[in-house]
Amino acid sequence: LVSNLSCRDMIHQGLNNSDDLRHKGLVACLSASVTKVVDIFARSRWVVLHFFDFLSHTGWITDYETGTAIRQHCIKEYATNLFSSKELWQIGCLYLKSVPGSQHFIAQLLDRIEIDNEKKAVKVISVYRQYNLEKNIEHVYKLLARQTFVKARNQ
Question: Which of 77, 67, 1 is nearest to 46 (CA)?
């Protein structure tokens, strides 16, 4: 038999009894508790960032300046996290590209990348050029020259 509960109420009831974080987050979404959702999903920067984007695009966040500032903060935090991965730092650059005036921040993060081979150096130089950070390229060339010198000296 189908009860008189709405679909939303049935989902809410079923998910509310779960210990799964995703289920708790969905319940919080259905309950329109933004702060509760952010608290539940705080361990996943990706979820927080994209949930906040969802809220912005659907009009739930009405204060444009505050919404923009929070969104940019979330992007910077998530992109910084991506830079800690040897494979995902370029994706971090793409996220930061959407934040106005982020060139300096991108340069700082790129400067921290461990350049242990020529292939990676070429990738880093390419990204520096993409963001018009020509002065930082010299740093990569010096690093490569130093690595080559040390390698030659040890042979």
Answer: 77
Percentage, residues of the chain above pLDDT 90:
27
Q: Is pTM beyond 0.85 here?
A: no
Q: Burial letters for 111-141: b for 16+ Cβ neighbours within 10 Å, e otherwise?
A: eebebeeeeebebbbebbeebebeebeebbe
Q: Give SS3 for 43.
A: coil
Residue 34 near residue 55, CB atoms below 8 Å? yes
Kindly report, residue by residue over 48-83, the tens digit of the pLDDT.
Answer: 788 777 777 777 777 777 778 888 888 898 899 999
- One-letter identity of residue 127: V
Q: How far is CA 49 from CA 28, 52, 86, 127, in A?
A: 16, 5, 21, 23
